[in-house]
Write a structure and sequence with these properties.
alpha+beta, elongated, 2 domains, 9-stranded antiparallel β-sheet
Length: 293
């Protein structure tokens, strides 16, 4: 008769006990490396998010109209006026170096543009297209008076004469300029016309597209844009500015701006701290701002 062999209860208990001991030892040995790996992965994700947000901010800053960058007093928001396009211009009045526009009839204002138009300027760029532009800016010096934008010398202060055309001005190109140039017509001008306060020594003008802002709100860093010229940064993104998060899990942020001068670049310091599941990273980035108007 064939004998059947099997485990005894004692042997089974011993195997279970030894298996549990081995599993405990393995988990003890591997738990710290696994926790370290998980923590490192979370930190890497946070660093990637923070670096991406700061790089996007830096890119917008470098595309801003000179001297248009401004930071909220508490350092929680920053805004700028983005460049649509730029070109060199020809003075549009006989005997002057600046630019002046009016609704007067052609030939009645001492215009030096093609056709004697009083509402146009010629630029040395045959391919410029002002479609989508909302303002024209000329030699914005960014002057402040008691921390408030100076009318006539700062894009945020408006003014006529000034450094930026009034909101609502339209821009169109007509096929009348000589080869290699374009003639831009300004429409919807004030009844009294508009005059730029300063002439640009380099005869450089800008077309501006939109106001772009970044604000830390709650646990997010938001990017928004709008088409108004407000004297101060709004406390919340304006209605219709379509705020979109560029970073989540924001624990703190701070923006500090040193404007510099026409001879020295400004400096914007960006600080962003992100936290998630007990992990925290803090990144700082400095952006040199070319404020030569």
């Amino acid at each position: 008769m064939r004998r059947i062999r099997a485990f005894t209860l004692v042997e089974l208990v011993m195997v279970i006990a030894l298996s549990g001991l081995v599993a405990l030892m393995i988990s003890t040995v591997l738990s710290r490396p696994m926790e370290g790996f998980a923590g490192q992965s979370r930190r890497a994700i946070l660093v990637d998010q923070a670096a991406g947000a700061l790089n996007r901010m830096s890119r917008d800053v470098r595309l801003a109209i000179p001297n248009s960058l401004r930071v909220e007093a508490g350092g929680q928001a920053v805004e700028m006026l983005l460049i649509h396009s730029a070109a060199r211009y020809r003075p549009n009045r006989v005997g002057g170096e600046g630019l002046s526009f009016s609704t007067a009839a052609a030939g009645s204002c001492g215009s030096s543009t093609v056709g004697g138009r009083c509402d146009s300027v010629q630029v040395l760029d045959a391919g410029i297209s002002p479609a989508g532009a909302n303002w024209m800016v000329l030699y914005n010096v960014g002057a402040l008076s008691g921390g408030v934008p100076e009318p006539g010398s700062n894009v945020w202060g408006g003014g006529n004469p000034g450094v930026i055309t009034p909101t609502g001005t339209t821009f169109n190109v007509v096929n009348a300029a000589p080869a290699g140039e374009s003639q831009i017509i300004l429409g919807n001008l004030p009844a009294s016309g508009f005059q730029f306060a300063f002439a640009s020594p380099q005869r450089r003008l800008y077309l501006a597209q939109t106001v772009v802002g970044y604000r830390c709100s709650g646990s997010q860093l938001l990017r928004y844009s709008y088409n108004q010229l407000l004297a101060a940064i709004p406390n919340v993104p304006p209605v219709g500015s379509n705020p979109q998060p560029v970073a989540a899990n924001v624990a703190s942020c701070n923006f500090v701006y040193q404007p510099g001068s026409t001879q020295r670049s400004g400096l914007l310091a960006l600080n962003l701290q992100l936290s998630q599941s007990g992990e925290s990273v803090q990144l700082m980035q400095q952006v040199h701002v070319d404020n030569a108007p």
